[in-house]
Specification:
Chain lengths: ~120, ~110
């Protein structure tokens, strides 16, 4: 079974600075998908960024980018120019590329952006 | 706003009560999901419906009973719950149940079982 580990329960960053959230996963598959979801205080989970394992190029979405290290099974999220609205829980998630569509989530990292 | 609405936002119930959670999506999606989010634990998938048919029951106790009358609505009927069932219950939808679809989540129902 796949597992997703987020080793940082909480992190904080100053506004306008850069922060990196870590995520590692365990799988024997070669084809899969990785996600970062954000859950602000409103509780609504929002997809931040998605990475296909077969793509070598790291995904980017505006201020959000990932460092995908397939051999190390590492999928970190970098937030540049942090904003107060980035304060939220961030969840890393894994999905198999096969017929098992289930998303496996990590426990999350609470990120606080300080003014 | 992601187009997925959950009601009620908060619910307090006794162990002998019967209540229902409601989820509605206005996105034209055909797959809907129930997740349970407990403190300091990963999100747990509970049920999946694809085109109104239940395609996944992740070993959920029978005191949780889902219902999907159409592709836009999903219910979770609750009865004789336990205190450990207290959690945030999230509904999500996606175009279809597939490999790479993006999930759209509601804001959840915070359930407290006394």
């Amino acid at each position: 079974a796949q597992t997703v580990t987020q080793s940082q329960p909480e992190m904080s960053v100053q506004e306008a600075e850069t922060v990196t959230l870590s995520c590692t996963y365990d799988t024997s598959e070669n084809n899969y998908y990785l996600f970062w979801y954000k859950q602000p205080p409103s509780r609504q989970m929002i997809l931040v960024i998605r990475q296909e394992a077969y793509k070598q190029q790291n995904a980017t979405e505006n201020r959000f980018s990932v460092n995908f290290q397939k051999a190390a099974k590492s999928f970190s999220l970098k937030i540049s120019d942090s904003q107060l609205g980035d304060t939220a829980m961030y969840f890393c998630a894994f999905r198999s590329g096969g017929s098992n569509y289930k998303l496996t989530f990590g426990k999350g990292t609470l990120l606080t952006v300080n003014p | 706003e992601t187009g997925v609405t959950q009601t009620p936002r908060h619910l307090v119930m006794g162990m002998t009560n019967k209540k229902s959670l409601k989820c509605e999506q206005h996105l034209g999606h055909n797959a809907m999901y129930w997740y349970k989010q407990s403190a300091k634990k990963p999100l747990e998938l509970m049920f999946v419906y694809n085109f109104k048919e239940q395609t996944e029951n992740n070993s959920v106790p029978s005191r949780f009973s889902p219902e999907c009358p159409n592709s836009s609505h999903l219910f979770l009927h609750l009865h004789t719950l336990q205190p450990e069932d207290s959690a945030l219950y999230l509904c999500a939808s996606s175009p279809i149940q597939g490999v790479n679809e993006k999930l759209f989540f509601g804001s959840g129902t915070q359930l407290s079982v006394l």
